[in-house]
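sorry for the late reply, my laptop died twice this morning and i had to redo everyting from scratch. anyway the thing you sent over, i finally got around to it. pasting the sequence first so we're on the same page, its 258 residues, then the predicted structure underneath. double check i copied it right bc i was rushing
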Amino acid sequence: MALLSLRNVAKHFFSQENVLEAIRNISLEVDAGEFVSIIGPSGCGKTTILSIVAGLLEQSEGEILLQDTPITNANTDVGYMLQQDYLFPWLTIGQNIDIALTITKKKNKPNQAYTRELLDQMGLADREHDMPSALSGGMKQRVALVRTLAAKPSLLLLDEPFSALDFQTKLKLEDLIHETLKEKRKTALLVTHDISEAIAMSDRIILLTNRPAMINKTFIVPEELKALSPLDARQHPTFQDWFQLIWKELEHLESEVK
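ok and here's the structure:
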């Protein structure tokens, strides 16, 4: 059964001069434990879809269901991890993590123990009392992941969470997040411009058209790649074939707007 369902979702933005159709007739199901990536031409509406799923924007048409319940506003069962870590610089790492529990009204000793266990898994158990300024960019994103997972959401939305990192840190964090989400059996929806990242981390890849965004194609990542860590998947003999296949499709879409 699908954990997340988008049914004929559309989004229009209105101004005094015109109407901008951002998304048209998006229908998509994401199963529990599945990792799905969304790619497409720049500005096509990928992040708009995440914002609607998170309940931060209201769709103009269609419906979105999380565990068969309509999403109508911000939902504590949905975790949202952004490009920047957005840690509060005046709070310690532990205090930053606890804010997620306070906001969702889930702050208690068992949940605080759970977040400290996650912090330990991220290799940051000894940094709980440090300020964010003492951490590297990759460390801050690991803290952001712990904060996102703190309230034990059913669905994680990842909006290019590695884009601001150097390549080596990005690869390490991809592996760590992939391993953590699989271990916790979390469901994730990732928006990315990086085709390699999408292939390495996903079970499925959704390719969107130019705006208004519609689903152009769906790629099912083969089992031999899904069984590997993202770093190992990048070394697999078939990886470049999949990259070229998706690259050509994306290149064709982007050429249509030139």
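The chain has a mean pLDDT of 91.
thats about all i looked at so far, will dig more tmrw
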